[in-house]
Write a structure and sequence with these properties.
Elements: H1 9-21, H2 24-33, H3 50-56, H4 60-68, H5 83-89, H6 93-101, H7 117-123, H8 127-139, H9 141-145, H10 148-152, H11 162-168, H12 172-180, H13 199-206, H14 209-217, H15 232-238, H16 242-248, H17 259-262, H18 270-293, E1 332-334, E2 340-341, H19 343-350, E3 377-379, E4 391-392, E5 411-412, H20 423-426, H21 436-439
This protein binds zinc ion (ZN) (2 copies).
One zinc ion (ZN) binds at residues 334, 337, 339, 367, 369-370, 372.
ANK repeats: 46-78, 79-111, 113-145, 158-190, 195-227
Pfam family, one: RING_XB3-XBAT31
Region (Disordered): 389-442
Amino acid sequence: MGQGLSCGEPHEHGLFRAVQNGEIEAVEAMVDEEPRVLEKTTASNGRLSALHLAAANGQIQVLSMLLDRSVNPDVLNRHKKTPLMLAAMHGKISCVERLIQAGANILMFDSLHGRTCLHYAAFYGHPDCLQAILSAAHSTPVANSWGFARFVNIRDKSGATPLHLAARQGRPECVHILLDSGALVSASTGGYGYPGITALHLAARAGSLNCVRELLAWGADRLQRDSSGRIPYTVALKHKHGACAALLNPSAPEPLIWPSPLKFIAELNPEAKALLERALMETNKEREKAILKETVCSLPSPLHSEAGDDDDISEASDVELCCICFDQVCTMEVQTCGHKMCANCTLALCCHNKPNPSTPAPKPPVCPFCRSDITRLLVAEIKTKNDTQVEFSPSKPRLSRKSFNTSEGSSSFKGLSAMGSFGRLGGRSSGKVSSECDGDKS
Ligand SMILES: [Zn+2]
Ligand SMILES: [Zn+2]
């Protein structure tokens, strides 16, 4: 290719610079003048095409223009990386979305590590890109040919799934999204790292307390051994991650585990789910405090849950308290019977400490007030007398009765009933396009 362009060196240099800088008019002019300039690749960087450069730099306008001119969305560089992989690697969500829209194949493997775009989004920690690719996997031919579950657990050359890479790199949000999408929490890598290690081993090695928490809350087994017989606890100790080791110590109390019983609630809507997830993580953090207190390590304080100043605490006498614990606000409502309780009590009903593989599947939880099966949970409307905005952390368990705390990332519940205003509370970026990603250089 490119025979006709042998004298065009400065031309193509100019092209790549213009693409990188998002100079759309300049790029268009060059392409109009000589369409075959697009066949050129950079001399360095593994021979990137103009589309690769646009994707890696988040130049969405240039990228769109190139795609509109029928540039192959799956053009490969020397290492068989696609523009979609580069966009996912650099967290350029709008480019990821545009490429997928243009038909980019999410099931391509590079030649370096045999990784897909999903691996790259997980490894580099871009939850929005990860989510976009997973959404595409539901609707594209991948779902038919491979099946979604297989795609989520896709392995690279050395046997690493996206979950392994996210745990290895300490990307708790990506870990969460992947687990929530069906990633197998206890899958071992095969060859990546040490033979037989799991995501929990990798998180332990990275010292990522948040990843360890997520994995444990999804039922990762602290006793699972790699092929040399090491449990994650040993790995954390070896790498001197005291806090992780404390949680991974098999003799420490088990955390609450999220999914199994809640799976029986067929229609757990996203708002209710986000609220419960948050409550679960908060509850586990409370439980961790006791564990971590005993360890000699000084934490960089991921447990930022000291009660706020008294100024932050507002009287809540006019808010409906949970009739089970009389401690927290009713945030959950059983849809069929309308009974309400707080998120913590809901969790207590639904979660158990340790799934026992030998027992048959547990029954769906029942409403503690009327004993009817809980088949659907909703976020209860928070009623206050004067409808002032009440801020509180939904699961803060250790505050004096009738009081709320506004510290630590709490969100307003005022808008809870309004659809779509809740996404923030879950703390996950749910595939939302953030425009600031678009224009910036990497
Ligand atoms: Zn309660
Ligand atoms: Zn009931």
